[in-house]
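ENTRY TYPE: paired fold submission
RECORD: A
CONTENT: sequence, then structure tokens
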Amino acid sequence: MAEENKSSLDALSALCKRRGFIYHSSEIYGGMPGFWDYGPLGCELKNNVKQAWWQFTVRGRQDVAGLDATIIMHPKIWKASGHLDTFADPMTMCKDCKKLMRADQINDIYAEQKKKPQPKAAGSDFFCPYCGGELTEPKPFNLMFKTVVGPIDDPANVAYMRPETAQAIFAQFQNVTATSRQSVPYGIAQMGKSFRNEVTPRNYTFRSREFEQMELEFFIRPDEAVELLHGKVATLADNPDLDGPVQDDWGWEVWHKYWVEQRKKFLNAVGLPTEHFVEYWQKPDELAHYARACVDIEYDFPFGRQELEGIAARGDFDLSQHQKWSGESQAVFDDPLKQACKKLSDEEKRAFVAKVQADWAKRGKDAAAAEKFCLDLFEGKYVPHVIEPSAGVDRLMLALLCEAYEEQKISDGKGGDDVRTVLHFSPKVAPIKVAIFPLVKKDEAQDRMAREIFEKLRKKVNCMWDVSGAIGRRYRRQDEAGTPWCITVDGQSVQDGTFTVRERDSMEQKRMTYHEFLAMMYGALEF
């Protein structure tokens, strides 16, 4: 987004509604807070973002398999994951205007108010940012949506809409491992809807109650297993080549950094330059109790710097929790590990156990548990650890819209200035790839040739046919849609088979043959 436009979402949201990117859900009935619908261009952009993620994360690799799990799952899954007990935000309510809000977002809401209301009670530290009224004491509010499965509305039939897609991956880990012919290290990816009953959904589509996620759980060997296999564990201090092939001796630290770099490459590929987002490495006191590291990739939205996606090293917490609550083993058998351990002497095994116990003690872990863990390793068994890159489709779409939006002052050709609104989408995610026009609508030869090009291209990519208005007006419509290329068939086209290709960002026009254009387009769409 051009710098002068970054202070407000007003212009962007107006464009999104006018051009069919985003509508407020149930708008004719007054809307539903925290719910959004994607129009013709919005659903194309959304599908392109998801397809790009799937191509980059799954189809473009040999070590990732896919999953598409149900939205409603057994409620014990959420007990095991901790969501049922701890997935809550602090909620407060204004005693005067009765507005509900998250207590930890009060300062942010203050900042958003152009005219900050004064507290109605003297000495108030926190007061309602809308009316200045007194706030209630914050209370935890569980964010999961409840539902009932079956015809009887009974507590025994209560289930929940999933608040994230990740837990289904853990619950199906053994099935996917058995059927995909994959072995650790490998990943399972899933895209899909999630639901969180946000107390105060805000900032346009950024924080919604219904949204889509793109999550990968990449399962790796514990560092102790890597050491037994290779005699050492590669760390970041070894300066590993993260752009080259993955290596068998990588420890969790290297795998985590590898996936941070992979996510940055993906964001670059879909149109977010590295200099426009930052890596925030969570401090030890900010990490979840089970996490060894977590990086938030943050983007400067018009409403401030916010998390775009996160990459966490989660240890074996998730699979171990599901193993505990389900009673089903989540361990894998690693034959190369067992064969390596067979070569160890009893003395070497005892020394290894002692080393692991000492290391675990530093992290507050039990010595007996460390010994059992080692004995399982010697038999080639362990519960895999996991690296989790987790991204929101809607947040990424919003970032791409913000990044792409620009209002340009250009000459109107009459000595004055005009404003050109353009969305600079990467061709990889642009909703419409090509627009095709006959220059003269009533010219049968031009119309026929343009229609032939349109029919051929629409079988390959999403295209737009437009014969309405002057050619300049047609170009402007496509600029607002973010269309990278416009093809115009004119009188010369009928003579020599070439046509004019107008490039969106530079507005330059070049004559090309159909095959020349096809080669250029495919080159721009490749990852």
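RECORD: B
CONTENT: sequence, then structure tokens
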Amino acid sequence: MDQSRIRNFCIIAHIDHGKSTLADRLLEVTGTVSKRDMAEQLLDSMDLEREKGITIKAAAARMSYTASDGDTYELNLIDTPGHVDFTYEVSRSLAACEGALLVVDASQGIEAQTLANVYLAMNLDLKLIPVLNKIDLPHAEPERVSAELERVIGFDQDEMIAASAKDGTGVPAILEAIVQRIPPPKGNPEAPLKALIFDSKYDAYKGVVAHVRVFDGRMSGRADLALMQTGSEFEPLEFGTFNPAMRALPALECGEVGYVATGMKDVADCRVGDTITLRGAPAAEALPGYRQAKPMVFAGIYPTNSDQYQDLREALAKLVLNDASLVYEPESSVALGFGFRCGFLGLLHLEIIGERLEREYGLSLLTTAPSVEYHVQLTNNEEVIVDNPADLPDPSKVMTISEPWANIDVITPSRYIGQVMDLVTGRRGQFLRMEFLEAESDVAPGEARVLLEYDVPMAEILVDFYDHLKGSTSGYASLDYQLKEYRPARLVKVDILVNGVPVDALSLITHSSNADREGRVLVSKLRDLIPRQMFDVPLQAAVGGKIIARETIRAMRKNVLAKCYGGDITRKRKLLEKQAEGKKKMKRVGNVEIPQEAFMAVLKLRED
């Protein structure tokens, strides 16, 4: 189709603002999907996506729309992931478009991820079309939210489209706005091929299938193609588009969105953000913005039944085929046996991978407490990277430890400012700025929404920060974060000793000011979780060679004097001494079985 009648756009929104539902209505109204084949959240193909109400994996769909001017347009929708963990994937999906629908819930207004995605789109110079969704709700406030969009982002009132994705209100107006406001692609069909990969997945028959947007040139035939960043080369097996199912085409023209089947066997060779070009006539330079997706959160995954270790290995190998951002390597733990150390983009990514392993592959798993990556400068000037507390070098060999810091944006009603500040400063947060998104006079007292910006150590927001934030603000606050930099800190490793033996899976790296408290809390919790033995079991928390906390699990005691009725005291003494000797021997050779709940205690150190 002629480039002037192509429109490439995506939908950006905060979680649960109706992005996937709006995509359903666009597919339905344009007749791309028949009513018989229509399903809720059609582009969200995983059960987990439907249950959690978020988009985990980006999808694309080509729609044909006849506008009011009588011309037929090709609309390419790229449905972006909807969570902060997938920011890089969102940025590449945005880079494949000329415009975006900014969907805002008319009852909730601007949220933290709304602003984060708006800034991403603005940096890429996309044309934004603001959509006030869910106007059919009884508590919707489109006037207040439109005023908020006008003041915070700078939209004009006449730019905004009131809609309800659920019942279809406003969808025709959205389609007309896409045609009228979003500019067509500007690529050169005669230039060397240049296509952006914005997603990829693995197909058993076609190998890695790359989702692409063609910026210059065209894709056709069987001429060898090359990836400009990784250097990989391949012969294309098939070109096509999404309707939303895959449909083969003889070629992909300049400006179009579709897929190319590469025949590659490893999705890591076909990375999101890379540029495809002709091997024989390559483009002069790659498209900007590429970077390798880097894990930010690390955790150990172990099968609760050691017989499932091989099943876990095979399941991870299959998941990695469709998710190049997941990394894993074998590791073993004295307490947990054999498992894998895995790297994830964020906590949601970790949760999704864990649930998929259990649901799709029938595994029963134990996941250790997540940690971040630390940069450790040794006394011999060597730098090592540590993502597992058990691997931290001896303190005598460590000069400095640097930890990652994140920049966070919290949006909350003004009545919760105090609670949010207490929470963040309690996590070593550093205040940067506060901005009122709406005037106090325009809303009820305490309801004006405020943006709070902080720098916080990444490790402090990993485990339960989001839950505490939601709890302290009655669920009203929203959070967005991004990795900022590494900073040196006074960090120490807290070891947990059970019966004098260090348990590597219970070790943790924490700030020296928190070490005593966290050590005391952890051994106290373990005392209640580890079953009593026939001998006393000491529980100790240690930093280096110094014990900072101790608890004792008292022994179960058998009354060996129960059958002694009278007689000489020496007989009773002999029985008691024999029992004491037996307990000493058991303590020397006995094993303490640590239940799974004990390893989860590390996740709950901050709970009251």
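NOTES ON RECORD B: The first strand starts at residue 6 and ends at 13. The chain has five domains: 3-181, 194-278, 297-367, 385-489, 515-604.
STATUS: closed
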